[in-house]
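Reader question, answered in our methods column.
A reader sent in the components of a multi-part assembly and asked whether the whole thing could be modeled at once rather than chain by chain. We filled in our standard form and ran it. Here is what they sent:
COMPLEX SIZE: two components
ENTRIES:
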Amino acid sequence: MPARPLTHTRAFAHGFRDGLSVPGFVLISSFLGFGALIRQSEFTLFQGLLSTATGWALPAQIAMVELYTAGASFLVIALAVALTNVRLLPMTVVLMPILRSRSTPRWVPYVIVHWLAITGWAQALRVCPELPRPVRISYFMGFSMVLWPGAMLGTMLGYYLAGSVPLAISLGLVFLNPIYFMLVFASDLRIKTRVWALCLGALLGPVLHLYLPDMSLLVTGLVAGSLAFVIGGGLSRKKQSAS
Amino acid sequence: MTETLTNWGPYIALAITFAVTYGWRALGVALSGRIRTDSPIFEWVTCVAYALLAGLIARMIVLPLGSLAETPMIDRLSAALLALAVFLLTRKNLFLGVFSGFACLVLLTWGRAGFAFG
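And here is the structure of the entire assembly that came back:
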């Protein structure tokens, strides 16, 4: 980090450089799979890019495309996206007090929050507390302005690759979607309730899909998630912390 | 896919996804600094989201929708298990794990097409 005082421009550049490293590379490659998924869905490349630009949260983007392709109603899509992305609410609640300063105009957080997703959130949470408060948003935006266009580039590459490589490779690209998220979840198994949620969800999801194709994801989430919460002791922890 | 005139369905799905997703983010800004995020309600919400996504991931591996459905289930399961094994054996190297799952499925598909031993 430079010893000179950090201007907004330099903080932005600092974030931009950090984006051009491992987390940025992993994120961009993960969107290759999404582009390949778009190629075999009812969505056009433009719509796929629009999804990356406006959704900016890959799991819900995949869920939306999968549900739409399976013929789910818009209500089901809205509920599934809401349940998938509700995690953005607590993430934002935690990060915003770190990012904003007293001089930040009231509307600015409402704009920059669009780029808040897991990779940028984890990065900002780690780096921003060490930066002077007024330039933290600039750092976050610098980082995001690598990831966001990068993810669109990844989407486009995946789309064109899936159409030009041999079928076996294009199948592999589509397969990146579930594999990537399976491993992302497997990397954080410290909290018992969440492990239960993953296991029960993985068992219930395919089974319910056979009986309730339209509603299976919602029912899986609510039933397996609530069951995991109870089994894993989520209720008893409440009592402990309350006493 | 060829587009016949304009199919508005995907745009509606995109608009819904954007509105719902941005809604959570904006609500997070409005509530930031005012609510606790370590309360049981957030842990329950996380459990529901995890279970939903695990259900989707498992379904995409076991019962995929598009062209992946033409690959044998045993190939997809083997590739997924290999990815998990490599990931755990390489101290959680995401790139190596994902790549081995990808390579395994590609090679199995190629093998079956080339030698037709499936």
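What stands out: Chain B touches chain A through 77 residues (CB under 8 Å). The CA atoms of residues 60 and 66 of chain B lie 10 Å apart.
Send us your own complexes using the same form.
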